[in-house]
Amino acid sequence: MEKEYYPVEAYPERPIAYTTSMNGLRKVRGWKGRDESRIPVTFTDIRCQGADHDLLIRRSYEDMQRILFKVSSMADAASSMVCMENAYRFKDEDSMVYRIVTRGWHDISLKDIFGPNPRAFAKIASGFRSAWKNPDKRFEFWQAILPLAKSLQRLHQSRMLYPRINLETLRFLAEDEVMYDNFHDGKLDLSKLRLADAEVMVPFGRFATGELSGTEILSSARFSAIENHAANWHSFGCVIVDCLTRYPSDTLKESERNELRKQNILARFDQGLLSHRELLLLTYMLDMPAEPHPAYILKEMELVCADLAMTPVGSGSNPKMLLNYVRREVESLFLEDYDCPPSVDELNQAMSSRLRKASVHFVEEDETPFAY
């Protein structure tokens, strides 16, 4: 099985994350295949030297494999999660290596852009936040966040729980070399954001690890799924706020960080850079009740998208409107103008021509139509 997979040779090896433990977890980029049709993959390796820890490591590996298989089998997982490609083990000199293969390369996270030390991506963060002052650009941000939130709800419904959700958990998935190079050049596509590190998730009935902070879950003898659902949703709200505003200092207490986030979104609202619905939704997530209502959160996210989609872009007496249509609703209006059913591009052009002052975007049939 391992003969199908090869380490990356075109670039210097750049581990995504690793631990210094001899039996630690390490991630590196690799390939499935070697010819022109090769596919980027990521190796998550657990290396075991000696028999002392082999049973424990093998069980951890099997748990990770089961979790990732379950996650990858969820509806719409490919568009919101880093999914498993394969799993196998092999001998490497005096070690046994347990390997899980996931699709794509995902070594750039939101933490690299919006975290405390963005370094090379500092200008990218500034560019995003400047662009998000415009409702149509913020619409694109929420459109990228919504499927991730839906997947988080599906994980909870499938009795799976993230031990922690933070900026590092959300990563940009590069599906080929060109996309990977574009990402590292700062040309980031929000639609490629995925929930990563699913292998560390905790099935209900086991105890999560970590301390109770804004982005982690408390280990407790009385494990409460509802309480930890609330922690997950609160953490997800923190991620959204930190992207839209700024990352609060790690030197602050968690209560102070949370209060600063509230001040940031309120200031942004006062400046007209957040809608009232966005403010209410984010405030709700930051003040997450003990019993969260994910259906409410998802519905509000959809309504945020709807509001932003119909917000005037620009100023003056003739502002430009961004309208979203379900394709099947308007396709019949133009059938007589074409010899065969028009393409999406043809429909966009036809509708934009008729409306003149509107940007038109068609959504799939199973998506929520935002305007008619």
Q: Would you mind describing this structure in some detail?
A:
The protein is α+β, with helices and mostly antiparallel strands and 372 residues long. 40% of the residues lie in helices and 20% in strands. The protein has eleven helices and 14 strands. Strands 1, 2, 3, 4, 5 and 6 form a six-stranded antiparallel β-sheet that branches.
Q: Major β-sheet, in short?
A: 6 strands, antiparallel
Shape estimate = globular
Helix proportion: 40-55%
The unreliable regions are 18-23, 205-223, 313-322, 364-372
Helix count from the secondary structure assignment: 11
Computed over alpha carbons, the radius of gyration is: 23 Å
Give the overall pLDDT as a whole number. 79
- List SSEs in N-to-C order: EEEEHEEEHHHEEHEEHHHHEEHHE
Structural class: alpha+beta
β-strand amount = 15-25%
Structural features:
alpha+beta, six-stranded antiparallel sheet, disordered C terminus, three-stranded antiparallel sheet
